[in-house]
Each structure stands twice: as C-alpha cells, then as structure tokens.
C-alpha cells in the first residue's frame, strides 16, 4: 500500500467493466489518486477487483454504503476491512447503534480502515429530501447526521462540499469530510445537485474529493486528473 500519498483525489470507477476499470487504473498513478469501487463495479466483479487494484498499489475506497440492522451493517464493514480497503462507508441513517457497532467491530480486530457515513446524497436537493419526509431542511439533516456519525466514533462523513465549512465548525478539524459532486466550471453536473469545484471544496475544508465522470469520461483521464490537481 502507498501510505505516503497526499493527493485528495479519489477517482470513482463507475460505468465501467472490469477490463475498462483496470485499463483506466493502468493509466493513473497511485501516487496521485486513490480509487473508489462502488456498487456497480463490485456487483460485477466482487473482491477480485479490489485485489487487482491493490496489486497496482492503489488505496481503495469501497463505497457500498451499507444500510442495515446493526449486526448486518457491522459484519459487512468487517468483511470490507478484511479485504484490506483504505476506507469503507455506511449510511448514517442506519442509526447510532449500527454505526457504533461497526466501529467497535473494527477496533476489536485492530483494523485501521477508515469508516465514514453518508449524510444526504449529493444528488438530492431540499425538495427531493422533503419528499422523503425530512421537512426541516437539508442543512439541518446533514448537520444532524454528521453529529450522529461523530457520536458513533466514526472517522468522518460523505457530504457536499457546500456543507464543508459548517461541518468542520460543528464536528472539528479531525473529522474527515469526503465530498463527491465535484465539477470543474465547464463540466456537466449530470445527476448531481450540490456541486462544487475542486479548489473551492478544498478551501472550504473538504479532506477528500470524490471525482467520477469528470475524469473517467474525459478523452484523456490522466490529463484531466493532472488538470484538476493543478487547479488546487
Ligand atoms: O458515497 C459516495 O461516494 C457518494 C455519496 C454521495 O452523496 N454522492 C455521490 O455522488 N457519491 C458517489 O460519488 C461518485 C460521484 O461520481 P461523479 O458524479 O461521476 O463525479 C459516484 O460514484 C457516487 O456513487
């Protein structure tokens, strides 16, 4: 593993077959980014894809967003840690007990895998959230779930960079903020609602930038990653 990496960029390997993902990984430098394996790629390829990326010296964020009863959530997190991934996530709305138990099971086994929780998906705006029955506002829900995540002892949350300033003030500098919905000014927003540029995200307190289509669908993904890193 490449523990010396200090790039904030995590490239999301979505919309790709196993071969295409590995071909892209071979174009990227593990010193310049980490890689995210999400539901699509993991469902297609299973643990083998994580192994193949580890063999290429990449640190992997396994983004399976576990959301289940406490025992099931905690055991799934443990199984992810056993794969040797750098970071894994759950949904904060699984609740305090599920998050606390997951963290405890990692500690009991001496795993230092980062465990983070998704607050409100960056594809949602206030109106979409209201339709799920949360009526006191998106910012309130993000803050509430971040505080619950911190109380459970997790390492940080996934949120929009638009909430980064507020959450750093609320949860402290050490509480990691992982922010998807990152777009350069001339990128397409696609299905993301709460977007931010890489530079603004870092300025406002994001620790890690999750970037998918902006890099993976570029004509030259490696050059686009370089461009993003230079913009920081
Ligand atoms: O947990 C995540 O990574 C995640 C949480 C969230 O709120 N929003 C979000 O977009 N993501 C993931 O981040 C990636 C963003 O991809 P792009 O929109 O293509 O940059 C996707 O793989 C999403 O699954």
TrEMBL record:
The active site is at residue 65. The gene is pyrF. This is Orotidine 5'-phosphate decarboxylase. Catalyzes the decarboxylation of orotidine 5'-monophosphate (OMP) to uridine 5'-monophosphate (UMP). It comes from Psychrobacter glacincola. It is an enzyme of class 4 (lyase). It catalyses: orotidine 5'-phosphate + H(+) = UMP + CO2. Belongs to the OMP decarboxylase family. Type 1 subfamily. Homodimer. Pfam families: OMPdecase (PF00215). The lineage of its organism: Bacteria, Pseudomonadati, Pseudomonadota, Gammaproteobacteria, Moraxellales. NCBIfam families: PRK00230.1 (NF001273), pyrF (TIGR01740).
């Amino acid at each position: 593993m490449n523990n010396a990496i200090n790039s904030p960029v995590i490239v999301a390997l979505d919309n790709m077959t196993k071969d295409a993902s590995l071909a892209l990984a071979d174009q990227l430098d593990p010193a310049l980014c980490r890689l995210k394996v999400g539901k699509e790629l993991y469902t297609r390829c299973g643990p083998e894809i994580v192994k193949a990326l580890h063999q290429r010296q990449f640190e992997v964020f396994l983004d399976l967003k576990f959301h289940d009863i406490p025992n099931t959530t905690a055991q799934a997190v443990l199984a992810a840690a056993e794969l040797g991934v750098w970071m894994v996530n759950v949904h904060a709305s699984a609740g305090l007990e599920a998050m606390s138990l997951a963290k405890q099971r990692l500690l009991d086994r001496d795993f230092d895998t980062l465990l983070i929780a998704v607050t409100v998906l960056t594809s949602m705006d206030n109106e979409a959230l209201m339709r799920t029955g949360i009526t006191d506002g998106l910012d309130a829900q993000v803050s509430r779930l971040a505080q619950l995540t911190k109380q459970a002892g997790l390492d940080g949350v996934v949120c929009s960079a638009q909430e980064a300033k507020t959450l750093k003030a609320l949860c402290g500098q050490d509480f990691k903020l992982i922010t998807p919905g990152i777009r350069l000014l001339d990128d397409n927003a696609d299905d993301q609602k709460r977007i931010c540029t890489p530079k603004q995200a870092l300025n406002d307190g994001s620790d890690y930038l999750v970037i998918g289509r902006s890099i993976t669908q570029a004509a030259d993904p490696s050059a686009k990653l370089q461009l993003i890193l230079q913009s920081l």
